[in-house]
Design goal:
Helix content is about 0%, strand content about 55%. By secondary structure, the chain is mainly β. It has one domain. Strands 1-2-3 form a three-stranded antiparallel beta sheet, with no helix packed on it.
Length: about 50
């Protein structure tokens, strides 16, 4: 779905036994995926998120 997928870790925070990551990914939408289930657009997609 995103053959040129590029993932970047923006920030990392670690405190004792906890951690948080701010990340982003970008790629050209060429096929269906769980993240973007509609028909391919051929357009660049940018997604930003946080994992704790």
């Amino acid at each position: 779905a995103f053959p040129d997928l590029h993932i970047t870790i923006q920030d990392i925070a670690i405190e004792e036994d906890l951690s948080a990551f701010r990340w982003s990914w970008t790629g050209i939408h060429t096929g269906k995926s769980k993240v973007i289930p509609w028909e391919p657009t051929g357009k660049k997609v940018n997604v930003t998120g946080c994992t704790v």
